[in-house]
C-alpha cells in the first residue's frame, strides 16, 4: 500500500521546507493580523512549480500523483503556513483536466502551470441550500452563443486572488429532470471580465484569515464556450474531483497536527512549573501522545486514499475517511497544544491560536463531518439514506 518512492517524497518535503523557511512564523502572523493575503508566498510556490504538481507534463506541469501533491500541502502546514491559500490552484484544475475539451485544456492548462492564470476558486455553495447541492438556485440559461447567469453563491474562496472560477449552475430546472443530480453544468468563468459586469463580490469577515465571499449574479453573460464538458453533467464532474480534494485536505490536517504536536512537545519540555517541566506530568503528556497516535493513524488512511486514487481505483471511501480522521485528529492536536501552552496559547506571538482557528475549518469545509458519516453509513454500511 505505501509503496511511493520515499526518496522522491523526501526530496519534495525538503524542497517545500526550504521554500517555507523564507516565510517564517512572523510572516504568517503579520498576514493574519493584517487580514492580508500571502501574495509573496503564493508567488514563490507558483514560481517553484509546486502548484502545478498534478498538471500533466504535456501541459507544462510536473505530472506528479496525488501522493506527491499531498506531501507539498502537508509540509506547508507542518512548517506553520496555511495551504488554504494555495490548494485551490492545485485541485480546481481537475475538473478542466478531466472534462474540458482539448481546446480548453491546451489554452488554459499551460497558463495555469506557469502561474500566468490562477484558477483558485470554485463556486458551489449557496446561502439557501447549503449542503443540499442539487437544490441550487443559480441558473445559467443559454441565449445564442452565451449563457446568462442569475443567482447567488456564498463562502466562495480566493475570488479576489483568482483570474478564473469553476461555477456550478442549473441549466435545466430541477422539476424537469428525472434524477436530481442531472441538469447542472459547470462553467469556467473569467473573473476579470465578470466582476463589475453582472457579478458582484462581497467579502465575508470570518474566524480565519481566509479570503471568502458572497457572490451575486445579475444577468451575467458568459460565452457558451465556457461550458466544461456536456451540459447537464456538471454535478457528476464536480464529484469526480472531490476525492482528490478531500485527500489533499487530509494531508494539510496531518501537517497541522504535526506542527501542533511538535510545538506542544517543545513547550512541555521547556516550561517549568512546580519545579519541573510541565511535560513530566502525565496530565500534560497524555493528550499530546494521544494526538500523535491519532495523527499517525489518519496518515495511514491518507496514504491508502493516495494509493487508490493514483492507481485509478475508486478512492471515494478512503478519501472521505482520511479527511474525517485527519480533520478530527488535527483539531484534537490543536486543543492539546492550546491547553499545553496555558495562557500563552492565547497570545498571537505563539501562533497556536492562529493555527487553532485555521485547522478548525476542516471539520466544516469543504465537506462537514456529518456528511462524511452519512456517506459511510449509506455507501459502505448500506444503511438507509437519511436525506
Ligand atoms: C471559510 C470557508 C470557505 C469555504 N470555501 C468554499 C468555496 O470555495 N466554495 C464553495 O462552494 N463552498 C465553500 N465553503 C462552503 C462549505 O463547503 C460549506 O460551508 C459546507 O459544505 C457546509 O455547508 P453549509 O455551510 O451550507 O452548512 P449546512 O448545509 O447549512 O449545514 C449546517 C450543519 O448541519 C449539518 N447537516 C446538514 N444536513 C445534515 C444532515 N442531513 N445530516 C446531518 N447533519 C446535517 C452539517 O453537517 C453542518 O454541520 C466554504 C466554507 C467556509 C466556512
From TrEMBL:
Q: Which organism does this sequence originate in? A: Pseudomonas putida NBRC 14164
All copies of the Acyl-CoA dehydrogenase/oxidase C-terminal domain together span 232-366
Asked if the record carries the keyword Flavoprotein, the reply is: yes
Name the chain's protein.
Acyl-CoA dehydrogenase
InterPro entries to which the protein is assigned, alphabetical: Acyl-CoA_DH_CS, Acyl-CoA_Oxase/DH_mid-dom, Acyl-CoA_Oxase/DH_mid-dom_sf, AcylCo_DH-like_C, AcylCo_DH/oxidase_C, AcylCoA_DH/ox_N, AcylCoA_DH/ox_N_sf, AcylCoA_DH/oxidase_NM_dom_sf
Q: What keywords appear on the UniProt entry?
A: FAD, Flavoprotein, Oxidoreductase
Q: List, for all copies, the residue spans of the domain called Acyl-CoA oxidase/dehydrogenase middle.
A: 121-219
Acyl-CoA dehydrogenase/oxidase N-terminal domain segment(s): 7-116
Whether Heme counts among this entry's keywords is no
Family as reported in the entry's similarity comment: Belongs to the acyl-CoA dehydrogenase family.
Cofactor(s) named in the record: FAD
Amino acid at each position: 500500500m505505501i509503496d511511493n518512492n520515499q526518496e522522491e517524497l523526501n526530496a519534495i518535503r525538503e524542497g517545500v521546507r526550504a521554500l517555507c523557511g523564507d516565510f517564517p512564523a512572523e510572516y504568517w502572523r503579520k498576514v493574519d493580523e493584517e487580514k492580508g493575503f500571502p501574495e509573496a508566498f503564493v508567488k514563490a510556490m507558483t514560481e517553484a512549480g509546486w502548484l502545478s504538481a498534478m498538471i500533466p507534463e504535456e501541459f507544462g506541469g510536473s505530472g506528479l500523483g496525488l501522493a506527491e501533491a499531498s506531501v507539498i500541502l502537508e509540509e506547508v502546514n507542518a512548517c506553520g503556513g496555511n495551504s488554504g491559500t494555495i490548494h485551490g490552484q492545485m485541485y480546481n484544475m481537475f475538473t478542466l483536466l478531466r472534462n474540458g475539451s482539448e481546446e480548453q485544456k491546451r489554452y488554459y492548462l499551460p497558463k495555469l502551470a506557469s502561474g500566468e492564470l490562477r484558477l483558485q476558486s470554485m463556486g458551489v455553495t449557496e446561502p439557501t441550500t447549503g449542503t443540499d447541492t442539487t437544490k441550487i438556485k443559480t441558473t445559467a440559461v443559454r441565449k445564442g452563443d452565451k449563457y446568462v447567469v442569475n443567482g447567488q453563491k456564498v463562502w466562495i474562496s480566493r475570488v479576489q486572488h483568482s483570474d478564473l472560477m469553476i461555477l456550478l449552475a442549473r441549466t435545466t430546472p430541477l422539476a424537469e429532470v428525472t434524477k436530481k443530480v442531472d441538469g447542472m453544468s459547470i462553467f469556467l468563468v473569467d473573473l476579470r471580465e465578470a466582476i463589475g459586469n453582472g457579478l458582484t463580490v462581497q467579502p465575508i469577515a470570518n474566524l480565519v484569515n481566509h479570503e471568502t465571499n458572497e457572490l451575486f449574479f445579475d444577468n451575467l453573460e458568459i460565452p457558451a464556450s465556457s461550458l466544461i464538458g456536456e451540459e447537464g453533467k456538471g454535478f457528476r464532474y464536480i464529484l469526480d474531483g472531490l476525492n482528490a480534494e478531500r485527500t489533499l485536505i487530509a494531508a494539510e490536517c496531518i501537517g497541522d497536527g504535526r506542527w501542533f504536536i511538535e510545538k506542544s512537545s517543545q513547550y512541555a519540555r521547556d516550561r517549568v512549573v512546580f519545579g519541573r517541566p510541565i511535560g513530566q506530568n502525565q496530565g500534560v503528556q497524555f493528550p499530546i501522545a494521544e494526538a500523535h497516535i491519532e495523527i499517525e493513524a489518519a496518515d495511514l488512511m491518507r496514504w491508502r486514499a493516495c494509493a487508490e486514487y493514483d492507481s485509478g481505483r475508486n478512492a471515494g471511501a478512503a478519501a472521505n475517511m482520511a479527511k474525517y480522521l485527519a480533520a478530527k485528529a488535527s483539531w484534537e492536536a490543536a486543543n492539546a497544544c492550546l491547553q499545553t501552552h496555558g495562557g500563552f496559547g492565547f497570545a498571537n506571538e505563539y501562533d497556536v491560536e492562529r493555527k487553532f482557528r485555521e485547522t478548525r475549518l476542516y471539520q466544516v469545509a469543504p465537506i462537514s463531518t456529518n456528511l462524511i458519516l452519512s456517506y459511510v453509513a449509506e455507501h459502505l454500511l448500506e444503511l438507509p439514506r437519511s436525506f
